[in-house]
Design goal:
The chain is built from twelve helices and eight strands. The protein starts with a helix and ends with a helix. 52% of the residues lie in helices and 12% in strands. Strand 4, helix 5 and strand 5 form a beta-alpha-beta unit. By secondary structure, it is an alpha/beta fold. It folds into two domains: 172 residues, 3-Layer(aba) Sandwich (Rossmann fold), CATH 3.40.50; 126 residues, N-(1-d-carboxylethyl)-l-norvaline Dehydrogenase, domain 2 (Orthogonal Bundle), CATH 1.10.1040. The longest helix has 30 residues. An eight-stranded mixed β-sheet has the order 3-2-1-4-5-6-7-8, sandwiched between helices.
Length: 307
Amino acid sequence: MEKTRKNKEAELSLKTIAIMSPGSMGSAVGKAIKSHGFSVISSLEGRSKRTKQLAQAAGIEDVGNLSNLVQNSDLILSILVPSEAHQFAEKISHALKNTNSKVIFADCNAISPDSTRQIGNTIISSGGDFIDGGIIGGPPSEKDSPRFYVSGPNAVQMTKLDGKGIAVKFIDENIGSASAMKMCYAALTKGTSTLHIALLAAAEMLGVSNELELELEYSQRDTLNKMSTGISRIPSNAHRWIGEMDEIASTFKSVGVPQGFHQGAAEIYRLLNKTDFANETPETIDNSRTTKQTIRELTKFLNTEKG
């Protein structure tokens, strides 16, 4: 297999990378890749004002529609809300057929292995090449690089981007492995966050939040520290993570592991998405807001729902 990987690497020639969509993660990935000599493009047709501003700030070129995107790119990185992954792949499929283009499509979304294989079939049946990808970590920065886990027969081609603002980690040639990695990792990180939020909200509504905090300070200080940072930023991303939890639940169910944990996690994100804090963007989050203030806002909403 190692010989096969080296042969594929030698054949690879990536010059233009397409990013869809250049939101918080996509624009930062595009900027990082561009700084290493690649051309980076996107189709901003129908995208939000914020997305367009992020793309412009990152130096990502807008090529208009998706037909232009597939005709002018060597590799497309799909970095979207999970609920948009299938629809976007269908649109790329039509563009590939209409333009008779040849492009590599890497689905880097937080979706189940089954969903990934469905998207892979859509792209391959339209004449494109497919890579299964899963992103772990935040947007590229001076201190850290996100890890792009990749798998599938063409996955080794992504290694040309390794060290170019992102880390690319090849798993194997099976479509679904990279998505499985992402699902299992996010089950821990984002799943744990919802457990923290749920128990803090319950304690607040039951009138024991102060006592719980004192006990956690005494016996679970590391956990309390984690609860005290980051929760105030979660509502702004809740809309993205609802679908991610649903995909994790589906992944677990497919291998006989109970899915209820992450169905519950999805419900927590749905509740957070109904609060006023959900209207914030990563650029407008009130960083002075505490975890307690965020939890109290959630419990106000829960009391309204009860009433």
